[in-house]
Design goal:
The complex is a heterodimer of chains A (116) and B (345). Chain A is mainly α and 116 residues long. Helices cover 78% and strands 0% of the residues of chain A. With 345 residues, chain B is α/β, with parallel strands linked by helices. Helix content of chain B is 57%, strand content 8%. Chain B contains 14 helices and 5 strands. In chain B, helix 6 runs antiparallel to helix 7, helix 6 packs across helix 14 and helix 9 packs antiparallel against helix 11. The longest helix of chain B has 50 residues. Chain B is elongated and about 90 Å long. The two termini of chain B are 55 Å apart. Classes of the chains: A mainly alpha (116), B alpha/beta (345). The interface between A and B is medium-sized, with 24 and 18 residues.
């Protein structure tokens, strides 16, 4: 199975993302690989131990934008919730969203990395 | 030749920049900045940027700071800025709008709408630039035409007055030099270079009222009788009437001092001038300066009733009060101007 088909199975809205890119699937794949690396760089779990919620919010905000633009919907929804909850000063609930989202995120990254 | 317009994409996240570059790359030349500092550098260095797509939250300098810089430099007037946001706070968006941002682009991007919105704004800005350029050219032309009309008017008066047409030019030149010296020497009379330019141009209008004076008086070779002199004095008031009937001249900023100069260039410091008998600083400094310049030029130029006096004689007459009393500060400035000129020669 090809990368984009696998991503569709993981609820990534590939069609919507491709329509934004004028159907340029090679570019989309290139961006998806970049996203995978970005998620590794913007590890949001780090700040929770230090109660550095501002840093987590900034990272989550950046990931929200990138995942949204690439229509990685499950992660976009997760990061949107994290940003909202941290703005509402509800870090416990935000941490809970991260906990439930992480396995989904790992699965998506594993899928992407397979094709690198 | 590549006629593509340039869009600057400012976002610290490379993925977002790449997506926007893909959306706009076909129709526009793309320049990228990965932070606010780089964006400011590019905006200030390049003349060809037609639009800026600006992320609000960036680690070095955020989008609002970029907007503030564009306000300081004036770039915001010529470049439309679109804020890129993933639903940031309302306060930030409001501040962005207040700082001149034209619109907000929400993430995730909707390629088709984005293209339409940004392209139409860029076209509008280009159209506005073209219109401004046309208006600027037309206004310049109008001003030149108006200046020509005034020059013709002033020269026509001089020809009636049997002058060569050079008197007006000399008065304007001496007014500029003298006014600059007065402004430099005395803080209470300090004027900007731009205002001095207007005063010098307006000096050309000082005698336009002479157009209403009969030839028999204007060009009489001998002394005027008291009655004739009374008619001659009317040229100050008649000149103002003439200028009032051409409001376009007064609306033309460059001649904003014309009315005052026309009316008061025969007033004297001791109140013995005409037409209003003003004294001291009730007479505007520019009318006082034109008065001195006018007297000096009249003395050093030949007239139908007299030969030209030498510079030294003219200065002695002016300083001796033979042509009426002038503001001592202007006379000091006059002395300095003449000394400087003789040194240069």
């Amino acid at each position: 199975m090809a990368l984009l088909d696998e991503l569709k199975e993981l609820h990534v809205d590939v069609e919507q993302a491709l329509s934004s890119l004028g159907g340029n699937s090679p570019l989309y794949e290139k961006l998806i690989f970049k996203l995978s690396a970005m998620i590794r760089d913007y590890e949001v779990t780090d700040g929770f131990e230090d109660n550095d919620y501002q840093e987590i919010m900034e990272k989550a905000h950046a990931l929200k934008g990138a995942t949204g633009n690439l229509a990685v919907t499950p992660l976009y929804n997760g990061y949107s919730d994290i940003v909202r909850l941290l703005r509402e000063e509800r870090p416990k609930q935000a941490k809970e969203v991260i906990r439930t989202m992480l396995p989904v995120q790992e699965e998506i990254i594993r899928c992407i990395e397979k094709y690198r | 030749m590549n006629n593509k317009k340039t869009i600057l994409i400012v976002d610290d996240i490379e993925i977002n920049r790449m997506i926007l570059a893909e959306i706009f790359g076909d129709s526009y030349h793309i320049v990228e900045a990965d932070g606010g500092r780089k964006a400011i550098e590019l905006i200030n260095a390049r003349e060809d940027i037609s639009a800026v797509l600006l992320d609000l939250l960036m680690p070095d300098i955020n989008g609002l700071e970029v907007l503030k810089d564009m306000n300081r430099s004036g770039a915001i007037k010529r470049i439309p800025v679109f804020l890129i946001t993933a639903a940031d706070s309302r306060e930030m968006l409001m501040e962005g709008y207040n700082l001149g941002a034209i619109d907000v682009i929400m993430k995730p991007f909707m390629a088709h709408f984005l293209k339409c919105r940004i392209s139409s704004v860029i076209e509008l800005y280009e159209y506005r630039k073209e219109l401004e350029s046309v208006v600027h050219k037309q206004t310049k032309r109008l001003h030149q035409m108006m200046r020509s009309v005034i020059e013709v008017l002033a020269t026509a008066v001089e020809f009636r007055d049997c002058e060569s047409g050079e008197h007006v030019k000399r008065i304007c030149g001496l007014t500029r030099t003298l006014m600059t010296e007065v402004s430099n020497m005395y803080p209470e009379y300090r004027l900007s270079e731009e205002e001095i330019d207007k005063i010098a141009a307006s000096a050309a209008l000082h005698d336009v009222g002479k157009i209403s004076i009969p030839d028999s008086i204007l060009n009489k070779p001998g002394r005027l009788t008291a009655e004739e002199f009374d008619i001659m004095k009317q040229h100050t008031v008649k000149g103002c009437e003439l200028l009032s009937s051409i409001p376009d001249i007064m609306e033309l900023g460059v001649y904003s001092y014309g009315y005052d100069i026309c009316r008061h260039h025969h007033e004297r410091w001791d109140g013995k001038g005409y037409p209003d008998g003003l004294s001291g600083d009730d007479i505007s400094i520019w009318a006082q300066v034109v008065a001195v310049a006018d007297v000096y030029d009249a003395l050093t130029s030949p007239r139908v009733y007299k030969k030209a006096f030498s510079h030294d004689t003219a200065m002695t007459m002016i300083f001796g009060g033979e042509c009426g009393v002038f503001n001592p500060k202007i006379l000091k400035a006059m002395e300095r101007v003449m000394n400087n000129q003789s040194k240069e020669n």
